[in-house]
Design brief:
single chain; mainly alpha; two-stranded antiparallel ribbon; 2 strands
């Protein structure tokens, strides 16, 4: 599931530019200082760093899964339309073996 978003990423080796302290709360300033210290402690060569989990990708996957679950949880109540309902009930049911044999009849296997 790469598609341009790798599962693992490496921490940036450059320390982000400083942010004005007066625009940050004390908690944010502490977190920023800790992140800058952690980034400074990383080796400059990405091949020597341990990969990190790409959380941005995980958030995208979670959003898609949450949306799918949201639509699966809804109970749809469709009105019964008699010709369609009778047709759906009368459809034949084939098990996997019958379907496999039918597929061989339609598309015979290529012989080498």
């Amino acid at each position: 599931m790469e598609d341009g978003n790798p599962d693992l990423v490496y921490a940036p080796s450059a320390i982000p530019p400083p942010i004005e302290k007066k625009s940050l709360s004390k908690k944010s300033a502490k977190a920023l200082a800790a992140a800058a210290a952690a980034a400074a402690a990383l080796p400059a060569d990405p091949s020597k760093q341990l990969p990190l989990i790409n959380l941005a990708k995980r958030e995208l996957v979670y959003g898609v899964m949450r949306e799918i679950r949201m639509y699966q949880d809804v109970r749809y109540r469709f009105p019964v339309v008699e010709p369609v309902s009778t047709f759906m009930v009368a459809l034949p049911f084939w098990d996997e073996k019958d379907l496999y044999e039918l597929s061989l009849q339609r598309e015979a296997r290529a012989t080498n």
